Amino acid sequence: MSKKGNKLPILIGIAAIEAYRFYKGKGFFNKIRFKEQHKAVSDYLETHYPNAFYSDITATENGWSCVVNNRGNRVVLYMTKTPDNVFVFWENQI
Fold first, then answer.
1. Residue 16 phi, psi (nearest 5)
2. Which of 2, 6, 19, 21 gives 26 a disulfide partner, CB atoms 3.0 to 4.6 angstroms apart?
3. Which string of DSSP letters, residue by residue, matches 23-54?
């Protein structure tokens, strides 16, 4: 068996993992899949939590969520989108 044949299952596995990550919006792909939501969260944090950072955005049953870390204080930030394309946010302290 050639070396090329030995690498094929590995390449197929890597491709499958990356396809799954793209579908689920994990890591780098999160900003692609949830581009509009990332923009909304960034704008919200700029106003409410300057210099804070947040986790990947996750789809929920009725919208999206992420975890905001603001100097050690953590908040779960939930958001939905109205029919008028306005994001509505609410928070829960962790």
1. -65, -40
2. 21
3. HHT-THHHHHHTHHHHHHHHHHHHHHSTT-EE
Is-contact 73 60, C-beta < 8 A?
A: no
Dihedral sign, Cα of residue 33, residue 67, residue 43, residue 71:
negative
pLDDT in single tens digits along all 94 residues of the chain: 456 567 877 777 776 766 666 666 566 778 888 999 999 999 999 999 999 999 999 999 999 999 999 998 999 999 999 999 999 999 999 8
The pTM score is 0.73
Residue 33's pLDDT is what? 86
- Which residue, chain included where needed, has tokens 């394309």? 85
Contact indicator for 67, 94 with CB cutoff of 8 Å: yes
